[in-house]
Structure formats: C-alpha cells, structure tokens
Design a protein that fits this description.
The chain has helices at 3-9, 53-65, 123-126, 135-179, 182-199, 210-228, 254-259; strands at residues 14-22, 28-33, 39-41, 44-46, 69-81, 92-102, 115-121, 231-234, 247-252, 267-272, 274-277, 280-283, 285-289. The protein is an alpha+beta fold. The strands form four sheets. Strands 4-1-6-5 form a four-stranded mixed beta sheet, sandwiched between helices. It has a three-stranded antiparallel beta sheet with strand order 3-2-7. Strands 8-11-12 form a three-stranded antiparallel beta sheet. α5 runs antiparallel to α6.
Length: 290
C-alpha cells in the first residue's frame, strides 16, 4: 500500500455537538436513544464539514426535537473510544456539549429514528435515570453551572444594591447640604420683609435719592443670597384660589365666605410673601381670603 493510500484510509476521531436543552422551568429534555442501547441521553450529532459548532447544535436540535433553541454556554468536552454501548463499533467520538435554552413556543416532536420515550426532568430526577455514557457528567456540569450562576447573580444584585445605596446616600447628602441653610434663610426673610415694606412705597421723586439707591442695593444683595440658595418667591396675587399647600390664611372675610361656601376661597389680600427652596415650601404666603 502506498503512502497516499495509507493517508486516505487513515481514520480520525469524529467531533460531535450536543445540546442539553433546558426549558423555562429549569427542566432538562432527555430521551431514550437507540444509539446508546435505549439509555437516556440528549440530542446531538456530527458537525458537518465547514459548519460552525453553534450552527450544528441548532440544526441537530431542530432535526431531533423540533425545538428552536438558544445556545447559552459551553458545558463540557468528553470523548468515547470504542464504547460497547454505542450502536456502531470502533467509533472514536469527541463530544462538545452546550447548554441550550428552549423558549417554550414549540412542541417537542422527537425523531423516532433515534429516540423513544422522552420527558422533561429536574437535574436531580435526571441523575436517577439509566443514562448513556457521559450524560451524567454533563448534567453534573449543568448543576455546577447553575450554582455558579446563582452566586454570580447574587453578587451582581449585591453590587447593584450597593450602587443604589451610594446613589441614595449621595442624593440624601445633596438634600442635606441644600437644606442645611434653611434656618439661616428663615432668619433672613424677615429682614427682607422689612426692606420690602420700606421700598415698596418710596415716592417716585425720591427713587434717585442716594440713600434710597443704597437701600435698594442692599435689598438686591439679600435677594441674590436667596437666589443663590435656590430660594424663590411663591407667586401669589389677589384673586388667586387659596391653596393650603402654598398659602396660610390668617384672616377670612366672614361676610363674603358665607356667600361663597360652595365655591373655592379666593385670596383677597397678601399680607406676607411666601418662599420655596427648590420644590419645598419653607414659608407659606400669609393671606386674607374671602
């Protein structure tokens, strides 16, 4: 025999791709297979020349089970050399086994040429079956995979919880800093009230007076301090509807309110301006309602 003939007749191991299919409930699809003396196994087959492993798995799963699966992750590699359990003698098989997810949309239709009875089993139930060579190892790998994934998911949740905690603490700190000056602001407001009481009634011919200009300058400085601390005036006008969240009624015109008991109370006069710090009311506007 020539060297060329020797090379042509030389045998090589055959690579096979298998898919351990798991449904949304976490159960494994196993079936009795003629290939392994009617022992339980999972779907799989040879990788064709020029075919990617993932494509081979999806093809084999479709051909043998009718299911469209998602290839999730690699589980294990194994081999079988001249196994007496296999239906063909003197076969050297290399198994590449992957975890596959079934979306539950299609009905299982096993290929009768290779499989008999089938069912969905929990990993613990599956380990009690009469399993084909190497299947037990793959199921145990899946159990370890689930545990590791559980640890990883728990770690990810812890990281996410910690990030949320840091975010909440940062927001709380920002709020605390923002409102830490509230006491000082509340002490400034009566001073500003007094300025408004003085400057709101300055005669026109006195507005250019040097002392008036100086007072107005101080008033604007106080208003700027408030603005820098996100303090804004609550806009309140005569005729507005009374809002207990924004206004404090210090007096009511009883004659008019008796007439309007079935209507919203309206503001008759603004006694004292109200202010907000951001969205928080730090002093309600004091009003007379009718």
């Amino acid at each position: 025999m020539t060297d060329k003939n020797k090379i042509a007749n030389k045998q090589y191991p055959e690579p096979c791709a298998g898919g351990l299919i798991v449904n949304p409930e976490g159960k494994i699809l196993l079936a009795k297979t003629h290939k392994w003396n009617d022992k339980y196994g999972f779907a799989g087959g040879h990788i064709e020349f020029g075919e990617k492993i993932e494509d081979a798995i999806k093809r084999e799963m479709k051909e043998e089970t009718n299911l469209d699966v998602e290839v999730v992750d690699f589980l294990s590699a194994d081999e079988s050399i001249f196994s007496k359990s296999y239906h063909k003698e003197r076969k050297h098989l290399i198994f590449l086994d992957y975890l596959c997810q079934d979306n539950g949309k299609l009905e299982v239709k096993m290929n009768d040429e290779f499989h008999k009875e089938y069912g969905w089993y929990t990993p613990e139930e599956a380990l009690k079956l009469d399993l084909a060579d190497g299947v037990k190892k793959v199921i145990e790998k899946y159990i370890d995979y689930k545990k590791q994934k559980g640890y990883l998911d728990s770690w990810k949740r812890c990281v996410a919880d910690f990030e949320n905690y840091k975010k909440r603490q940062s927001e709380n700190l920002a709020e605390m800093i923002k409102y830490s000056n509230q006491g000082m602001i509340l002490e400034i407001l009566p001073v500003l009230d007094n300025f408004h009481a003085s400057t709101d009634h300055i005669p026109e011919d006195q507005k250019d007076n040097a002392w008036v200009v100086g007072i107005m300058h101080i008033q604007k400085q106080l208003e700027k301090v408030l603005a820098d601390n996100d303090v804004t005036e609550i806009e309140t006008k005569v005729g507005d509807n009374f809002d207990p969240a924004l206004h404090e009624a210090v007096q009511a015109d009883t004659k008019e309110t008796d007439k309007n008991t079935k209507e919203n109370h309206q503001i008759k006069k603004v006694i004292l301006k109200g202010y907000k710090m951001g969205e928080k009311v730090i002093r309600a506007a004091r009003v007379i309602v009718k």
